[in-house]
């Protein structure tokens, strides 16, 4: 009888720890995602350089490029991500991979032209040692009525 209680107690503790860990990881990645938009608006390429994995890819409406190109675009203001208003978010974590979906209104300046566009942005992160690194960011143009399924 005591063994049975002991097994149940360890099972419940392990389950609770597992949920707490996932919740902490979700909070961490969601905060990184939110911070990323501010760093992009501030053109803070030093913080973004640390966040973006060296093999990261970025898919925009006008093309796809790698980390160094994205950082240069942000630094020079070729695309200035002035303000991202997040309307809805969702996250799923599987192992060391996190996928974040943000439905945003992006106010930007693209090659000198002001733009205000509704997007759903998909971000892929991977836990490397103790840090989360962004592997991919993809913009999808959507209607303002689009909702992210949770």
TrEMBL record:
Keywords: Plasmid, Signal. Residues 1-20 form the signal peptide. It holds the Pfam family DUF4440. This is DUF4440 domain-containing protein. Residues 30-134 form the DUF4440 domain. SUPFAM superfamilies: NTF2-like (SSF54427). It comes from the Bacteria. InterPro entries: DUF4440 (IPR027843), NTF2-like_dom_sf (IPR032710).
């Amino acid at each position: 009888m005591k063994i049975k209680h002991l097994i149940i107690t360890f099972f419940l503790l392990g389950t609770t720890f597992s949920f707490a860990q996932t919740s902490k990881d979700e909070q961490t990645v969601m905060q990184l995602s939110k911070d990323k938009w501010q760093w992009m608006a501030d053109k803070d390429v030093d913080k973004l350089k640390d966040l973006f994995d060296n093999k990261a890819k970025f898919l925009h409406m006008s093309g796809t490029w790698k980390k160094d190109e994205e950082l240069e675009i942000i630094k020079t203001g070729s695309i200035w991500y002035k303000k991202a208003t997040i309307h809805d978010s969702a996250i799923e974590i599987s192992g060391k991979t996190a996928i974040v979906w943000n439905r945003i209104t992006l106010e930007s300046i693209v090659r000198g032209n002001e733009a205000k566009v509704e997007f759903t942005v998909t971000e892929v992160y991977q836990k490397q040692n103790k840090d989360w690194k962004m592997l991919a960011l993809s913009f999808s143009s959507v209607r303002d009525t689009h909702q992210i399924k949770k």
